[in-house]
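Q&A log
Question type: sequence-to-structure
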Amino acid sequence: MYSKLQSLLSARWLINQQEVMAYFPILLSFLNGNKISLVDFQDDKLKNTPFVVNAFANVADTSLLTDINLPENSVAVIPIYGVMIASKTQELANNVLKAQSNPSISAIVFLVNSPGGQVFYTDITASIIKTCPLPKVTLVMNMAASAAMWLISASDIILASSPLDMLGSIGVMSSFTDMSGLMKEKLGISVTDLYATKSTLKNNQVRQLLLGNAQPIIDNMDFANAIFHNTIIANLGIAADSEVFSGDVFYAEKAISLGLASGFSTLEKAIETASQMAASNQIKSLLINS
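Response status: OK
Response body:
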């Protein structure tokens, strides 16, 4: 449990700050010696389970993405829900690859409600989504922030479900928790770090931070942030001087005006749009090959 918590605290994050604050009570409970379960850090798995919908139908089929006996021209609905820790982002990538490998699936709809997540594997998964040849429609239902925005920027169309939806938070953050005082004062444990003579830069970012110099960590985040920004620019065609790159989060109508989304939709209409895009591509393919 401690190693899991440690990995969460030390990771670089593409996440909305409000979600980070929501986890503080759990962290404080742990620091006070209370037992907590990994369930406290997990979302309902069912909310991240993909399902398949027959084209132009509203009835969902829970068939697996790998079932080649699905009805022809089915649409895969793949959720992006909750905090996207690295393992969930990897699972998302696998679901996209499964869908594109199934000849019975003609399009994908991403159903999104996520404040973001860890930096790790976000760029790889976004690239997999980008290169997926199936039409890809995203429907935001409540929030698409930070890492979630990076991921869905690779889809063909981004739609909001309500004017109260929030999109953006395009930026990188990191938090550092120094537990040395707690360990010494409350647990009676003193920790001494020793380094080999030539290991002058090992753990340099943290060592500098403890000395009051945050710049090495900021430089590290700036590197990831630049890649994030360049991806949004390339995928959505947003100008580099746009206010979206300030890291702010925007309600849907403002997000649409800034180019982060293109309009409003329901899930049923989003599925229909994806089906129509797939049908259009099939017609184009037939004309080219005839």
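Response note: The first strand starts at residue 12 and ends at 15.
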